[in-house]
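Ticket #4471: structure export looks truncated?
Reporter: QA, pipeline team
Priority: medium

Steps to reproduce: submit the single chain below to the structure queue and open the exported record.
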Amino acid sequence: MKTFLEYLYRSGKVEAVALARAQVEQLAKLRTALEIVQAENLIAPADLIEALLVQEEKSISFKEACSQAGLWNEAVASAVAATQAKERIPLLDLLLAQGALSREELTTLHLSFTGALAEPTLSAPAAPAPTVATASSSCPLTGDSLIDESLQTAWGLLQIEADAGACVHA
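Actual output as written to the record:
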């Protein structure tokens, strides 16, 4: 298994319906490429109208209409992808919010996933939990234990993983 979310699903810890509901909610809350292009003025308003007319006439996606009109380029695609990655609500946040998992369950499951079930020794001083956060959300897994330090770091990796594997919602 490659990701923590895949582990949660394949091990039956998160039901398919809960994960699907979280994914639908994530996409519903994500601004579309059209909304971002318009709000960020990535394409001139007159050109944007022309692309929308082509989209309606040919029944194609907004991105395809912009491509056909020569308006969709690497700069626009990168700006849209970066904005969506920044604004995307992580699936773990949504699963916690909908009650599919509790914080305690998530802590235990993460330890199982990483194989970090070893007890911390009394002689090892507890290091402060690193601060790992994104502009869109902070880690809901903070606390004072060594376990939480591991989760805080993993949360940052999940944020990076989610951003890297994200698709552009058009």
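Status: closed, not a bug. The export was complete when the record was re-opened. Leaving a note from the reviewer for reference: Confidence is low (pLDDT under 50) at residues 117-170.
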